Every structure is written in structure tokens, then in C-alpha cells.
Amino acid sequence: MSNIAHTHYPQSGFLAILGAGESGVGAAILGKDKGFDVFVSDKGRISDDYKATLRKEKIAFEEQQHTEDKIMQAALVVKSPGIPEHAPLVKALRAANIPVISEIEFAAQYTDAKLYCITGSNGKSTTTMLTYYMLQRGGVNVGLAGNIGKSFALQVARENYDVYVLEISSFMLDDMYQFRADVAVILNITPDHLDRYDQHMENYVASKFRIIRNQTKEDYFIYCLDDEETIKGLSSFKTKAKHLPFTQNHVVEQGAYIDEEKNIIIQVPNKDIFAMNIEELSLQGKHNAYNNMASGLIAKVQELRNQTMKESMESYVNIEHRLEHVACIGGVNYINDSKATNVNSVWYALESFSPDIILIMGGVDKGNDYGMLRDLVKSKVKAIVCIGKDTVRIHESFEDETDVIINSSSMQDAVEIASYLAKKGDTVLLSPACASFDWFKNYEERGDKFKEAVMTL
């Protein structure tokens, strides 16, 4: 099969699956369909839906434990991306030379569909969804999987797509060895999940670059020319794939850039040139221009018509709670970025908007290091309105960077304070950097309450 470089994994025998979430249950079904003797083991509770699916498929499982003696008999192990490499069971399996791979690696050997794989610290979901939307509109028989949508393995088992758009996290990449991406995309690399990488940025960068492993000269590598860590990584990680960089700071002969008239220009060898003004994009902001360039490059490789690309980029609606435009009231834009539960995502949001921003942030602090936000807060934020119970660290971190930091008593209160502080041309941005569990059930409820409050202004 074309998506695995040199398959040498067992093709039958005892298959153990660690973790019974979306990816684990999907891998179990594919394994069963391919004739393996499958056993699913989860250290936590398995959700009722997944248990019902496993029973219906007659697949053996256990929950709230790992029966190590049994699992150590496996010919092959597929593990959930959530289980770290230093877990004792994983270490034991490695020591016994039992192959431990990801669901994506396992499923790729059973499909010859084209695989368009997108990774990056920020913007993965938006770029993946936009690409999927564009290809669907272009009439491509396309599936959506990875970190998003239904399990890739389940779709390989039970669907029949010609192309998959896969959102791939670094945790998935860590368990991929033979897998080959027809198109590999690295959007950006900023510090995230360093606790899984021994606090070493270079380990995290190396993980991201696993996406280009095994690529051939027939394949494409799309990356951001303006991203410092990606460019540093290029000197260490080589690929035969055709390079298609995208940039807002340079002009490139192959790839994507923005010209003096603010048009995105996309040029892929032997395909017609695409041009579209950034004002016409449905997703506004600097980061979204990058996301559109990356998606546009994939669409060009897939030979979509320019008209289809343009219509898709004009009409795509972003996922809810991620830099979602709520309303413009009295010349003030209100943006719901409730999904920004870490400092990194807030950095990204602040980077996306021009000054003057009134930032609504706070909630359950996950030991955040707010240091990386200081320069952006200083240059762009004119006031911070705190929500949630952990506000002390926000005050301590930014008291020198902005003139106004105010605590609020509810989301309604926060929005009213923000609207009072905002002038025409300003942006009120909910981008909390924290979990939501003090005042809200989850980030969705937090975002919905923000939208309700804005609509009552």
C-alpha cells in the first residue's frame, strides 16, 4: 500500500489496543475486520457509547486496569496518543521489542487513499476544516480524521474515500514510523506540551518534523517561511518532497505569498496561478491569512478550480469558540475565543488583531507562564477584564504592561465593563488562557454566555 514506506508490522495474531476513545475503538474495528484477535484495554472508564460499540462488534475489552501479562502477549500494540512514552506499560512493551504504534500508522497500511496531513501548534483545526470544506465543494471524495471527526481507522475499515484530510498532533506523530504523507503541512511551531518533551523545545520540534518522514519526490511539503522554529528545523530535517512555502513577509516563486495589493498569490508548478484579495476571506486576521494560504496550496495540489477555491474561502464559517466573530456594535468588534485555554492560543489571538484590544481573560489557572504575552499585551491591549476565581496571577503578570486591570463578577458584568472601556475601532476579545471549570461547565458554555452577553448590549 502506498502510505506505508516498508510495511513490516504483523498482519495477523493478537492485537492489543491501549485506550478506548475514538481512535482506539476505530483501530479495534479495523483490526477485527483485518482478521486480528483484538483486545482493548483502558486504564480509565470506557464511555457507554464505546462499550456498546465494542459489544456489538464482539470485541473483548477491559476497563479501569491494564492486564499486563495479557497485553505483553501481543504481536502488535496500537496506543492512544494520550498515553505518554514514559508510562511503565509502554516501557515494558518497548523493552520486549513489541511494536507500539499509533492508530494513524496502523490504518495507513490498509488504504491507498491520498493523505493530506496537517500539524502545527496553532491553527490545525481551522486549516484542516477549511481544506476539507474546499475539497468537498470541489467534488473530491474526501474523509476528515485525525484529531478531529471520526476515527481514521474506522473510516478506512468501513468507508471508501479517495483522499483524507488528517489533523495530526505531535502525540500522534510520536508513534508514526513508516507512515507517508502525500502532502505534509507544518503551520507553525511554538512552545506547547513541553511537559511531554522533557521541557526541551528541540524534542517538540523533532516530533513535528516526523510528518515529513518517508516522503518521496512525488510528495509535497507545505510550511510557513515566517515561522522561526520551522525554518531552524529545516536545516536538520531533510525531505525529497517538493517544497511549497507560504509567507506574508517575502515573495516566493513557488508557494504562497501576499502581494502589494494585499492579494494572496498561490503558485504551484504546472498549475494555474490563484489570486484573491485578503479582504474577501471569510476568516479575517493575520493568522487566518496563513491558514488560507496553507489550505489553498493543498487545494492547488489537488487541482481544484480557482473559482471553487475562491468561493470556499469567501463562505467558510469557522469552528465555534475559536476566534469567532460575534458582532460589531458601535464600531467595536466582539470576538469569542473561549477555546483558547492556554497561553499559547491567547498569544496567537493577540497576534491576529490590531491594537486596541480589551482582553477578557481568566478562569482556572493551569500554572500558566504569562511571560510570553507581556510584549503583546504592552503593544496591543489597553485593558484587561478578569473573569473567574484565579485573578491574582493575571494582576501580578500584567500590572506594568497595561493601565487597566479590572475584576468582574460574571460574564455579563465582564462584557458590560469591556463595552464601557471600548471605543469605535477597538476589539473586545474573550481569550481566557485558562480552563473554565470555576464558573462554567466547559469552554463552550463560557463562549455561549459571552455571546449572549454581547447580544444584550
From TrEMBL:
Cellular component aspect of the GO annotation: cytoplasm
Pathway entry: Cell wall biogenesis; peptidoglycan biosynthesis
Residue ranges of domain Mur ligase C-terminal in the record: 321-434
Signal sequence region: none
Positions with a binding annotation for ATP: G120, S121, N122, G123, K124, S125, T126
Family the UniProt entry places it in: Belongs to the MurCDEF family.
NCBIfam families in the cross-refs: murD (TIGR01087)
Protein name listed in UniProt: UDP-N-acetylmuramoylalanine--D-glutamate ligase
